[in-house]
Structure formats: C-alpha cells, structure tokens
Amino acid sequence: MPFKTIEDAIQIANDTEYGLYGIIWTQNLTDAMTLSRNVRAGVITVNNFGPPSVIQPFGGVKQSGHGREMGLDGFLTYVTQKTIILNA
Question: Among 4, 50, 59, 87, which one is most buried in terms of CB atoms within 10 A?
C-alpha cells in the first residue's frame, strides 16, 4: 500500500484488526527497525518471507490469537512453575 511517511505506514499496518505476521521491504535499516518496533504483529520479517524456525516463538496479537507456539515461550505455556522452600 502506498504511504507518505513511516508514521503513515505504521498507522496503516496497525489499523487492521489482525496482527499475525508483517513483512517489511526496505533498504533502510533505520526504517526497518522503527517499523519492526511499532507495528503490532506477532512476527515481523525484514526483506524476507518465510516461517520462523522452530526455535523462535510464533503467534499473533489482536484478532490473530494470543500466546506463542514454538521456542522457549511456546514450551513455557505447557509448564507450571512451582517454588519449593525447604528448611532441612
């Protein structure tokens, strides 16, 4: 979609009710980092299209779901932590 400024691009991207995956195509690293930090999506890729590896957490925000699969974050959703203090 066409946009005039980086702020316009962020607003366009964030105006959707979904937030699973975003792709940024640019040669400007500063713009890529600004967009990556401010676009509300579970995954952002820069100059690349493809799924994350199994060691990276994957999941969406807004109407694209909550929580993460894969990676340490995904594993931890299946774990209940417990603290045990023993004075022996």
Answer: 59
